[in-house]
């Protein structure tokens, strides 16, 4: 990487990603590392111009006071501390740094150059992909979502026909989504696309599994096993490309940070996998992924498509997945998307979806008692997926969506609206 970098060491602060984003907005790359990174590991990081020690009260992580490797203080790299400094080499800032303070530290003290931008990033990644892959082939899971689409565009720029795209219908897709993926990528974009219908395979593996972490790992493992099978049918497949992005890395935890939730493409891969990973987006926040897509020339409607989790509707059909509730999630989600598009909310709201929990409530349908599932609506706005606010919907929209869902979706008798921001809730329920 040619760009200068400011390293943020996590000593317990909840503002790490905010600081990283603010530094990137200044045109300088920034990345978060755990507080116990060794001096040897620090020396291997490219172009480190400055270090920010970002801690909570008394520098506490999970209830334990922490500090950094003392040898890092002797590297001669400029440092600032946001709480309580413990070394004379640190400059203390009592609160979050202002924009002017960050500019002073990043440019005047650290002598960084504002060379972090999408044009440079794309050029760097294309060169790195060429060096990593050589003349070998790469297998890519192409869901049609933003992340996999941007990865595909970047790999096509870097290695062309060496890329083999595989779309897996795991039975957990949104209504009509697999059909759309095949139409757009195979028929319109002329991608080298293999379509695999693995619905029964995935649902059989998930039968009776209620723990969300176990569901995510099963789905992640099964994807890799399936790709291994597909690769064995082809020649020269040595690499697996993934759309891992920076929030996936942060939320899945580091060797010291507490995990929020695992992501199917972070730490969920089985031991002994034969592929080498290609993950060109792992440094980017979600809005940066979209900017990268525009830089690569992808059409805006593809770049600004609503996010969809790797495990698909599997994490929106809460608890053990049943075909009955899975169908309720799929149909209610389709209704929500239709009504949001009619109301112009599809361009205003960052992510919106439905969730069906694994419990029922008493209701009345056709003048008879019924015992059926509720549907939970969620609509959030965010910049980087690390924090999120709730979209305050008009009652008219909510009532229209509710009316359609209870009338058109089988086995549903209630509709609820989730008003919880992130934090304390995550964007998805599982």
TrEMBL record:
All residue ranges annotated as the GMPS ATP-PPase domain in the record: 116-305
Tagged with keyword ATP-binding: yes
Residue numbers binding ATP: 143-149
Molecular functions (GO terms): GMP synthase (glutamine-hydrolyzing) activity
Pathway the protein acts in: Purine metabolism; GMP biosynthesis; GMP from XMP (L-Gln route): step 1/1
EC annotation from Swiss-Prot or TrEMBL: 6.3.5.2
Keywords assigned by UniProt, alphabetized: ATP-binding, Glutamine amidotransferase, GMP biosynthesis, Ligase, Nucleotide-binding, Purine biosynthesis
Described function: Catalyzes the synthesis of GMP from XMP.
Protein name stated in the entry: GMP synthase (glutamine-hydrolyzing)
Species whose genome carries this gene: Breznakia pachnodae
């Amino acid at each position: 990487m040619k760009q200068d970098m400011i390293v943020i060491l996590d000593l317990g602060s909840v503002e790490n990603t905010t600081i990283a984003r603010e530094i990137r907005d200044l045109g300088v790359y920034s990345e978060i590392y755990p507080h116990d990174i060794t001096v040897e590991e620090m020396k291997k990081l490219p172009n480190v111009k400055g270090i920010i020690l970002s801690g909570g009260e008394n520098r506490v992580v999970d209830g334990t006071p922490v500090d950094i490797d003392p040898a890092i203080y002797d590297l001669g790299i400029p440092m600032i501390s946001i709480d309580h400094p413990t070394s004379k080499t640190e400059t203390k800032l009592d609160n979050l740094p202002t924009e002017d303070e960050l500019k002073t530290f990043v440019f005047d003290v650290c002598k960084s150059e504002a060379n972090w931008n999408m044009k440079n990033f794309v050029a760097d990644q294309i060169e790195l992909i060429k060096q990593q892959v050589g003349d070998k082939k790469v297998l890519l899971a192409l869901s049609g979502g933003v992340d996999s689409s941007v990865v595909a565009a970047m790999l096509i720029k870097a290695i062309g026909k060496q890329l083999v795209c595989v779309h897996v219908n795991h039975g957990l897709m949104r209504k009509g989504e697999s059909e759309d993926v095949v139409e757009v990528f195979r028929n319109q974009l002329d991608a080298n696309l293999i379509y695999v219908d693995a619905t029964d395979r995935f649902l059989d593996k998930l039968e009776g599994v209620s723990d969300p972490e176990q569901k995510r790992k099963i789905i992640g493992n099964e994807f890799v096993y399936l790709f291994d099978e597909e690769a064995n049918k082809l020649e020269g497949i040595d690499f697996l490309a993934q759309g891992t992005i920076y929030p996936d890395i942060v939320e899945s935890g580091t060797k010291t940070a507490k995990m929020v939730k695992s992501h199917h493409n972070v730490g969920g891969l089985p031991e002994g996998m034969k592929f080498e990973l290609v993950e060109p987006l792992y440094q980017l926040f979600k809005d940066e992924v979209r900017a990268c897509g525009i830089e690569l020339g992808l059409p805006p409607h593809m770049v600004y498509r609503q996010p969809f989790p790797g495990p698909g509707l599997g994490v929106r059909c809460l608890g053990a997945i049943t075909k009955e509730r899975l169908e309720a999630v799929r149909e209610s989600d389709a209704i929500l998307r239709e009504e949001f598009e009619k109301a112009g909310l599809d361009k205003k709201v960052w992510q919106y979806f439905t969730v069906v929990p694994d419990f029922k409530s008493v209701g009345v349908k056709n003048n008879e008692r019924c015992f059926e599932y509720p549907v939970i609506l969620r609509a959030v706005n965010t910049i980087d997926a690390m924090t999120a606010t709730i979209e305050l919907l008009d009652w008219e929209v909510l009532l229209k969506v509710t009316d359609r869902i209870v009338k058109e979706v089988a086995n549903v008798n209630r509709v609820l609206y989730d008003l919880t921001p992130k934090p304390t809730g995550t964007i998805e329920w599982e």
